[in-house]
Request: fold
Amino acid sequence: MSIKVLPQANLTDAMRLHLGEKLAAYYCNPPDSYYATADRAADRYVPALMPFHCDLVSRVQPNSTVLEVGCGSAHLCPQVEAAGGSYTGMDHGEKLLAQNRQRFPRARFFPLTTEIDETFDMVASLYTIEHVTDPQAYLQRLWYFCRPGGLIAIICPDFVDGDGLAPSFFYGKTARRFRNKLTSFALIDAFKHVLDLLCFAPLWKRRAQASGPGAFWINLAPRIFAGADYTTDADAVHLPRLLDLIWWLEGQGATIVETSRSLPEVDPAILKHNCYVAARKPA
Reply:
């Protein structure tokens, strides 16, 4: 069975360290196509297409400070600057950060390991938390960087309560396509593929949906490390859930000011796979 998903609390330190090291190495030298999808989002900041991003940007005030943790190619940066805010981004890979500095000279960019001795009016995380092995530690980092009374805004997939199965799952013994397994007469692999796809993966999802908030499910065997070519979220190790995020933020005393479930007029097709939460840290 290739489906190896555990609640975060059930991971050993060795499991988390091994997975984290593989991810860090991968993100320091990602495929050329890795940020292509994010780059296309730069020209799509309209409510019909990106309602959560637009709501986030609408909360940026003139002269406010915004930190994005896991900034990627920083398509949020020009939106923040157009609203009168100042932007700081953090991510893996000096090459990526150098490119960002050249594209956005008014902004600041730092490696993720940098200890910044300041807090921000808004701390944003756009499609990043699904790529961390310790989501609660990641959330604590967002919290640390947010000033008292500031906003934390998170956009990510919802792989538990959303439609379908996580793209980082693979089925059977290998990450090859089912047709390829059949045509190469890898029948045992093909049989296990069907078993995983129709039985074990849906079984995990029913179990996850029945669990209380705060599980933070971790995929120990993402398909990108099984030899698959990169596709969007093939590297996702954390399987986010809106209820988990709300549970954690409220547990810190935050006030939830908006979620994907409360934001009006969101296309149901967007809600099928994505979630959003904006929360205010106590003053």
